Amino acid sequence: MSADDPSNTKHIFDTFLDPKMGMEKGVHTYGAWAKQYNKMLTDHAYSGPRAAADSIDKRFQNVADKSQIRIMDMACGTGLVAEDLRSRGYENIDGVDPAAGMLEVAREKGLYRNTWCAYVGTGKQLPIEDSTYDALSIVGSMGANMMPCAGIHEMIRLVKPGGYIVNVFREEILSIDEEYIDRLIPLMKQLEAEGKWKQVEFSKLDQYLVDKVGLVYTHQVL
């Protein structure tokens, strides 16, 4: 069976989400499969990128010129969110991802003005000034071997007051991944109580990734 055979896709994703692998090995695995990544997600009917782009576009639907709205595509992978945003007129998009192979594919598409190969939420800030972006998206990047809850603090730091953060992830991480169980939602609520941001929209995706349910949280930075 070849690696790019659709029948092999489930095995590949089971490998990506194996909690025993750890973050560093997980990043190398994503990088190694970067050129097959888009096809694998297509086989899985992945709706996360479109949901994030929809939420961002809803925030700026009355803006005549969307090309100057500055957006951070965090954990951008091969650029699926940026592709959707660009089709709607958004051009000022930056990306960050820890997997060099994924970023290489994204860069070849010419989707981003700036990119950084870096981890987020592991104790080191990105080399980007506070309050830089009008919006930030993060899709499918909270889960086993992925960004820890602490990454939310960096998201808020990067977005201007009044700007938006859209986080799309599998609902099941809240009950199966130790990093997020009784931690992610309480942190989101704590930051709202502290006046760091406020939730402006929440929705569910019944077919986020095949039969997996997705959650879409949209917050406004205060």
UniProtKB/TrEMBL annotation:
It comes from Elysia marginata. Residues 71-163 form the Methyltransferase domain. Pfam families: Methyltransf_25. Gene3D superfamilies: Vaccinia Virus protein VP39 (3.40.50.150). This is Williams-Beuren syndrome chromosomal region 27 protein. InterPro entries: Methyltransf_25 (IPR041698), SAM-dependent_MTases_sf (IPR029063). Coiled coil: none annotated. SUPFAM superfamilies: S-adenosyl-L-methionine-dependent methyltransferases.
